[in-house]
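Technical annex B. To support the medicinal chemistry partners, we prepared a structural model of the target in complex with nicotinamide-adenine-dinucleotide, based solely on the information shown next.
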Amino acid sequence: MGVREEARTVENLNPYDIAQQQFDTAARYVADLPEGLRGWLRGTVRLLKVEFPIECDDGTVKIFSGYRALHSRVRGPGKGGIRYHPEVNADEVRALASWMTWKCAVADIPFGGAKGGVICDPKQLSRNELRKVTRRFITELGDSIGPHTDIPAPDVNTNAETMAWIYDTYDMMHAGKNNLPVVTGKPVAMGGSLGRNEATARGCLFVTRRAIEEGAVPGLNSLKGATVAIQGFGNAGSIAARLFAEAGAKVIGVSDSTGGVTSDAGIDPKLALAHKKQSGSVVGLAETKNITNDELLHLKCDILIPAAFENQIRNDNVAGVRAKVIAEAANGPTTPSADAALFDRGIPVIPDILANSGGVTVSYFEWVQNIENEHWSEDHVNEHLREKMEAATDAVLQMQIEIKDRHGENVDLRTAAFALAIKRVASVALVRGIWP
Ligand code: NAD
């Protein structure tokens, strides 16, 4: 490999470096951003690391490490999911926390950004062990989380049951108060919101449809009949498959950690889910062809939805992408150099901080319902979500135009979304004044 070729393919995949690079790219378009404030918004307010033991089912004691990062509370309490995965690390958590701040600002909900995770492989732990990990982790975080300070939610490998354990643990430590708003994504029977489970995918649908209708995707005028490939078949991905199909699109490829499948005739998302539940994987689904994950990313389709992890579309595989638009249901799936390559080819990327902001938006609705002791209907939740997502999409597209008008530069949607978010957060920081 020649030197030039090597330089082209070697990429810094550290998510925190990437998040800061994205911030720097956009911050230059935000007028009147004082230097010190810029530095503060670029960093992390607080990073906690905890280590704790649990007694496993076989009687042995295992030590686990977990993190909780708070990026900003300028616009409201910290908000962000908790992830269980062997590769959780401080920089990943700090990156995800900062993306939460920008996401909440783009969606215009009164939260800041936070994120947490425990280094573990949930596939190797029993339900009983996972409950112990959750309870002990939350106990160690103590009063650094709270209904008006920092509010967790589900993320990779955590779900409504995990959130119920978080609530229960916090409630044991703070008896006698309405503690329901300490965590969102709870089971509906105990204060969860109708529509929260589908919210990330539904928000992705609303945002993508709006962007298409607004003419932001060259060569694609409607979701109806559009072909869709989805990487990742968990909460975000499998529900996106169902909702996009219900909206008239045709799902032609799906994948999970074990591989993928494709069918030109279209994949029925319900059958794919049933097959995954029964066999543990989408691979081998009847009347489909097995493909690798890289092949899925390279399928010829209208809409590509990465819904798994960070750094999936990179310098080394971006050239093979043949979609007309990428809608990032996952956080951080596209690296900066892949972003640049896609922009050069005229393929818009609807960035994570817009495309997956439906999850935190309905988390906000859940928090409001908990505080007010209310229970909204699913239609009410979905209608409010649609309004929020369309307004956020319009605001990002408008910012893209404003940057062009003011600076004479064409920027991608990620830069426009970051600039909008930084402007919103900075204006609140300045009006509050720097403490003390
Ligand atoms: P999940 O654990 O429910 O699903 C993750 C899926 O990705 C699984 O199907 C897994 O098999 C698959 N996967 C793992 N590695 C893969 C690979 N190399 N190739 C293809 N598939 C792979 O998690 P989730 O909650 O759906 O989260 C997925 C992404 O969406 C994450 O980036 C998360 O941060 C983001 N997100 C989730 C929410 C939410 O409400 N759940 C909200 C916003 C953003």
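Notes passed to the chemistry partners:
Residues 14-178 form a domain with the Rossmann fold fold (CATH 3.40.50.10860).
Residues 1-8 have pLDDT under 50 and may be disordered.
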